[in-house]
Amino acid sequence: MEELRVRDILAQRQIPVSEFAKMIGVTREHCYNIVSGRNLSWDKVQKMAQVLNVPIRTLFTPPDLLISGNDPYEIVYGRTEIYKPNDIITFCEVNEKWGEFSNMSTAFAVEANGEYCKTSEHLFIALRFSGHPQLQREILDYDNSMWCKKIFVNKAEYKPLQHQNWHDEYFDVEVMKYIINLKYQQNPNFRKLLNKTKGKILVEDTSSQNNSNNVSRWGAQDIRKKYLMSKIKSDVNKFITQKEKEYEAHDSSLKKPRSKENQVIIDAKRKVEIATAENLKDYVKQSIRTHCNIELVGQNALGKMLTEIRDKGYLEYHLEYPLYLFKAEIK
Question: I want to staple 33 with a disulfide (CB 3.0 to 4.6 A). Which of 38, 106, 245, 299 is the partner?
Answer without folding.
Answer: 38
